[in-house]
Design a protein that fits this description.
Blueprint (H helix, E strand, L loop, with lengths): L1 E6 L3 E10 L4 E10 L4 E4 L10 E6 L7 E7 L5 H15 L33 E4 L7 H8 L4 E4 L5 H4 L9 H12 L5 E5 L7 H6 L3 H12 L4 E4 L1
Parallel strand pairs: 7-8, 9-10
Antiparallel strand pairs: 1-4, 1-6, 2-3, 2-5
InterPro entries: GH, GH10, GH10_dom
Keywords: Carbohydrate metabolism, Hydrolase, Polysaccharide degradation
Pfam families: Glyco_hydro_10
């Protein structure tokens, strides 16, 4: 589905929700909508039911009006989805490689037949990882054999490492880091993650809070490339 949305004032996240005839609410996508301009909301869902449904545009701020225009729905089968994915893979993830095969005396070999076996993928294909991987060997084997990149879902967040104020516990995230290092290496460091609260850190910890975070992270691991999310 897609729709152009705008709100009456400020900026707010607007979500598209499908409400079925039996009252179920199915999330269909979201966008940061603003006053004075239209924002494109694109999303979708897997419909494993047969029912009529209403599309609701919702924001946590009940004081603003939400305007929607050019709302459209397009159904597609799993086969159509796969075809679209294959086209995207051909366009984005593939490129031509030219081989020049010669004899030891540098003369070109004509009519030769070569075979190629892929050893590993360079494409940055990744997935989130949670703490269950520490105690589940099947999860470990499945994950390590498929993904080149990962990030921890919640295990490095404040409420996970300091459940009791003043008592820090990094046992779980440290073990997860060791698992990653065992199967590769840490090359990037998401120092500031999901900074959604405007000046929360600056107002509570000082205007140089970000700089201090990056300085400390760099001292801990100078080789890692640091970035905000």
């Amino acid at each position: 589905m897609q729709a152009w949305v705008q709100i009456s004032e400020g900026s707010e996240t607007v979500a598209a929700i499908f409400k079925t005839s039996d009252g179920k609410l199915l999330y269909g996508g979201k966008v940061l909508a603003k006053h004075g301009c239209w924002s494109l909301l694109k999303g979708g869902l897997v419909a494993n039911f047969t029912s009529s449904a209403h599309i609701i545009f919702k924001s946590n701020n009940t004081g603003v009006e939400i305007w929607a225009d050019n709302v459209s729905l397009q159904s597609f089968t799993k086969e159509q989805w796969r075809s679209h994915q294959d086209k995207s893979i051909d366009k984005v993830r593939k490129q031509k490689v030219r081989f020049h095969i010669t004899y030891a005396n540098k003369t070109a070999m004509e009519g030769g037949v070569i075979s190629i076996k892929q050893i590993k993928s360079v494409f940055p294909f990744g997935c989130g990882m949670n703490h269950y991987i520490l105690t589940n060997s099947d999860y470990q084997d499945w994950f390590a054999s498929r993904f080149k990149f990962t990030t921890f879902t919640n295990e490095m967040k404040w409420y996970s490492t300091e459940k009791i104020e003043g008592v820090e516990n990094y046992t779980i995230p440290n073990a997860m880091v060791k698992f990653c290092e065992k199967n590769g290496k840490l090359i990037h460091w998401d120092v500031m993650n999901e900074n959604l609260h405007f000046r929360f850190y600056e107002d509570n910890l000082g205007n140089n809070a970000f700089a201090e975070y990056y300085r400390t992270a760099h001292l801990l691991d100078p080789r890692a490339i640091m970035f905000p999310n």
